[in-house]
Amino acid sequence: MQMLEKAVFYGSVLVAFIAAVAPAETFAYFPMVLVLLGLASGFMRPTRDVSTRMAYYVLAALLPSIASNLDVVPMVGSYASGFLTQFTVVIAGVALANIFTVLVQQLKDA
Questions:
Q1: Run of H or E residues at 70
Q2: What is the C-alpha end-to-end distance of the chain, expressed in Å?
Q3: CA 70, CA 80: separation in Å to the nearest integer?
Q4: CA dist 97 to 36, 43, 72, 79, Å?
Q5: Which of 23, 31, 97, 104 has its CA 20 to 30 A from that of 80?
Q6: Contact, 91 vs 37, CB < 8 A?
Q7: Residue ranges per domain, the chain?
């Protein structure tokens, strides 16, 4: 299972990089693929620690605004900003999977 988790993580990094570099008209379903990879990653290894889950939520909310500041860096700023923005979609998928996992666990315990 650990090898599959690594493959999903490396695949999501690769897809986020390709989505950042490729033109938007190339493949319109990059966000859907990234969310599905994030959901798969989140369901394969759910986060039990509350502070780690909170960090995922904060990172999913604030990383696009942080990434937009990288546009001022010459030559590579737009690519770095695009990559971080695309990778935020993966992080949001992991956060959603964690929300669903915690919700199901609380419903089972009730």
A1: none
A2: 30
A3: 7
A4: 10, 6, 34, 28
A5: 97
A6: no
A7: 2-109
